[in-house]
Amino acid sequence: MLTKFFRNLQSDSPGVLLACLFVALAPSLMAQTAGTGILAGRVTDASGGVVESAAVTATSVETGQTQSVTTGPDGTYKFDGLLPGNYRLKFEAAGFKTVEIPSVTVNTTGTAVLDEKLEVSEKISGDQTTGAPSPAQENLPNAPSSSVSPPSLSDLGLTPEQTQGNPREQALLDKRTHMLKIHQRMGLITTIPLVATVILGPGAGGKSEGTATRDLHVALGSLTGDLYGITAYYAIRAPRIPGTKKRGPIKFHEAMAWIHGPGMILTPILGAMAFSQKNNGEKVHGIAQAHGPVAIVTAGAFGAALLSVSVKF
Amino acid sequence: MNIRSLAACLLLAFPPLAPAADSQWVLGQNSLTYHVSHPLHESEGVSHAARGKGVCHAGQCDFLIAVAVKSFDSGDSNRDLHMVQVTRGAEFPLVMVRTRLPESAAASVTVNADLEIQFAGQTVQYKQVPFKLETHGGETRITGTIPATLSDFKIDPPSLLTLPVKNEIPVRVDMTWRPQ
Question: A82: exposed, middle or buried (C-beta count within 10 Å: 0-12, 13-18, 19+)?
């Protein structure tokens, strides 16, 4: 097929052929100068017979660059001048199942050898439940002819409880993650009116006769309180996973909740008192004077809780 | 003598001729470390709880290594629970690795192993993964990195503050095997 392709190119235009050769060879030549590796192997069928003209495609995991070769009459293939790194390999041949290998490591120290055994596409896959070998097992290289059984989980001393899945616990984990995701997003959203409320605080409690800033401060404070309530709900109602001991930043995150939680209740109460006093033309006095400091501590604890699970200190 | 009696006599006279393993290996001290990258975080989870066995016959050794998904500790229980959830670790509680190596590899300094990894309900093969070998007093220490990715195992990248983690989750392996 390649011969026909090149013959057509030659007859059409030698210039095009030269251009194609340049485009095809230039990256390879450049790569070789930078220190390259070789990936080679043989493609066979289940009986060990060679598979000719199988397409082998190597895609660099790092760069996404793709190269393809086909196997020769002896079933072998070879990639020259591959940059060191990890490559995904795809084996395709007519009448066989396509096989994809997610990662093959190529380095400059030697030739990476990857032999692949292809299954006929009509073949029924092995079923682990019946004890027949799985396709993955069949694909392992250098399959020994001995009947000594490979080690099993029972050889490792694992109990059925350790090896069997627990769908109920998985469902609990899924629900927990779903609720904590909402908690996280609501926490981020709450931060916006919270910061705005704090910024407007000094203006709302100043000597100015105008009430616009104060009203906006109250409105934003109310919005913050509502959003905070929703945020807290999703954290409190998220299912607990039995047998889990809390470790790490989450302990600090939860400790901060014992500060900003009561603070989020106390702040609006004190704020309402201060608001009432201001509307009566009085200077803010008594316990209402604590509204500002309590709000600052609350906002600080909220920010610390957010940062503790976001940034590594 | 009926056929059943004859069969019984033959079984007693000639015990089953199943081939015995030439040698076996058992996994001793081990450390498996996954690395996760996030724009705000670099985190690692470590497990020392892997169990493994190797059975050798006719010059080839079959190895099986299993480790509980829940045994990985990143120092943050919240992150570990999230990891178990996204990898479906409660439904598929074990990471299992199978490989087959020539018995002569124990005497080498490096070995390229073909790994079959079962994790998160998927079976993925990694070919030609390089490992270093050091042998001291009959024990063989194997170190290397498996170039795993989340997409290999069809795991949706978890996100923090709406930013997803990187797809690459290389797993560092440090295992000491001793003959049994």
Answer: buried
